[in-house]
Amino acid sequence: MRAHPAGPLHGNITPPSAAGAPPVSLGDLDGQVWPRGAARVDGELHLAGRSVTDLVREHGTPLFVLDEADFRGRAADFREGFAGADVHYASKAFLCGQVARWVAEDDLHLDVCSGNELSVALAAGFPAERIALHGNNKSLVELALAVDAGVGHVVLDSFDEIDRLVPLAAARVAAGGAPVAVLVRTTVGIEAHTHEFIATAHEDQKFGFSLATGDALTAAVRVIREPALDLAGLHSHIGSQIFDTQGFEAAAHRVVGLMAQVEQATGVVLGQLNLGGGFGIAYLADDDPITPADVAARMRHVVASECAALGLPVPRLAVEPGRAIAGPGTVTLYEIGTIKPVRLGSSGAPGTPAVRNYVSVDGGMSDNIRTALYDAAYTCVLANRVSDAPPALCRVVGKHCESGDVLVRDLWLPSDVVPGDLLAVAATGAYCWSMASNYNYLLKPPVVAVRDGVSATIVRRQTLSDVFALDAVLSSSAEVLS
Ligand SMILES: Cc1ncc(COP(=O)(O)O)c(C=O)c1O
Ligand SMILES: N[C@@H](CCCC[NH3+])C(=O)O
Question: Which residues constitute the catalytic centre (predicted)?
Fold first, then answer.
């Protein structure tokens, strides 16, 4: 292997706690973190039977590689774990036409949270009756699209939205159609143990109707009195990337309590309870996610015992996992461009300069904003080969003009990594491509699905022509660009 001009990276600096001690064997693939179809073959990372160098030769970098069997296997785990309940794939995690088709074929429902997510699903042929429309600020146009398409549910989020939906629903009923089925999204006042920006059931945030103030009950009663609306049930979502089940159990307890209040106030017994998504995944080897079957058992137990205590029939359950289906099966492949050992002072062992090795790759916060936005933790490995060089503590960064453009804050890589090597970042299937941007005019990477050694581009790489086409001045020169 060609040596880097800066010499081997420095391995012996005091590790920050996030990086821990160097692993015994660098490049090992932890089974919880990497896709089910990931393996080392002759040292090289293979994904669902394709070598990463072949994939990169065909598709370039940065590249999202999605292990189809992993995605669909996790969807099946939820379907089976929650048998008798409805599993809605939360499409905000990652949606494209092919994913919509897999989810439809695999008998899941779909949660969309904008009119455009709804349009993607409908254009892919997803059955409208299995779609639920979310959103805290649905426009009249989005609501009309949902009503006309005949979505299964609209998940109501505000009194303004009820005002907006009623005339649309009334027009449908007047034309001989059915009332519009809705759920009332309830803010249950739970402090989920996750990052502030992705917690959604504490009082001081924008989603849902508060249980504590009585707004949720008021909304439910109002909907029940609207002949053009059909209150099918209640909804609660407490946040995202949650590991312990206590939050879900507490939420279930409180929403079933609200069902009892609705029954007392109106005599109406609600038949559905959607407890949302938020099931955590392993980004690092230490993370220990709960299985769908375990979550299902705990939710069922709480709902059944609360209903028994309150004299209610047990409602049909629904959940909305996004990350736990899409996240673990995808990795992002990058090529290393520059490596810069940066001296931090003399805080290392005596005589040893403290150095941070900045390893820059050809993507960054435009294809994965999560580290910058939530301080999310990721891991990555040298993908095109294994190395027995001593470990060096590294920070993997992108190529954006932003010092917060970090992908992996602290991790050990072999000290002989060089420009041209490939890095694979694990568990990037959820909220990476879907939150991608064109910052610094970087282009959105493609998504390639691999199954049994066969790959297919399910979203192509964005081109500069795509981007120029949006620009009043540049669009006239778009045809000369590739
Ligand atoms: C209403 C709702 N349902 C489902 C999800 C999916 O969450 P996750 O991807 O964490 O499962 C979200 C996102 O947090 C959400 O807001
Ligand atoms: N985008 C967030 C999750 C938000 C989910 C939608 N409420 C993440 O990357 O973790």
Answer: 401
Answer for the pair 277, 319: CB distance below 8 angstroms, yes or no: yes
pLDDT at 395 over 80: yes
pLDDT at 344: 78
- The pTM is what? 0.94
Same domain, 243 and 104: yes
Nearest CA to ligand 2 atom 7: 198
- Out of 23-32, 235-244, 304-313, 428-437, pick the least confident: 23-32
Q: Is there a single domain that holds both residue 196 and residue 272?
A: yes
Ligand 2 neighbour 379 (Cβ under 6 A): no
Ligand nearest to the backbone CA of 195: 2
Q: Residues 298, 317: contact at Cβ < 8 Å?
A: no
Domain boundary among 277, 298, 326: 326
Question: 258 alpha carbon to ligand 1 midpoint, in Å?
Answer: 21
Rounded CA-CA distance 381/414 in Å is 9
Q: Are residues 266 and 169 in the same domain?
A: yes
Q: Cβ(197)–Cβ(240) under 8 Å?
A: no
CA distances from 416 to 156, 325, 381, 388, 421 (A): 55, 35, 13, 9, 10
Please state the rounded mean pLDDT for residues 269-293. Answer: 96
Q: Which atom of ligand 1 is nearest to the CA of 240?
A: 10
Cα separation, 99 vs 124, in Å, equals: 9
Answer yes or no: do 311 and 419 share one domain: no
Residue 322 C-alpha to ligand 1 middle, in angstroms?
Answer: 6
pLDDT at 12: 44
For ligand 1, the distance from its centroid to the CA atom of residue 35, given in whole angstroms, is 21
Q: How many CB atoms lie within 10 A of CB 240?
A: 26
Q: Is 278 annotated as a binding residue?
A: yes
Question: According to the model, what pLDDT value does residue 354 have?
Answer: 74
Flag whether 334 is marked binding: no
240 C-beta closer than 6 A to ligand 2? yes
Q: What is the ipTM of this complex?
A: 0.98
Which ligand has an atom closest to residue 186 CA? 1
Tell me how many domains the chain contains: 2
User: Is the confidence at residue 138, as pLDDT, over 60?
Assistant: yes
Instruction: Compute the average pLDDT of residues 228-239.
Output: 97
Letter for the amino acid at 240? S
Q: Mind telling me the catalytic residues?
A: 401
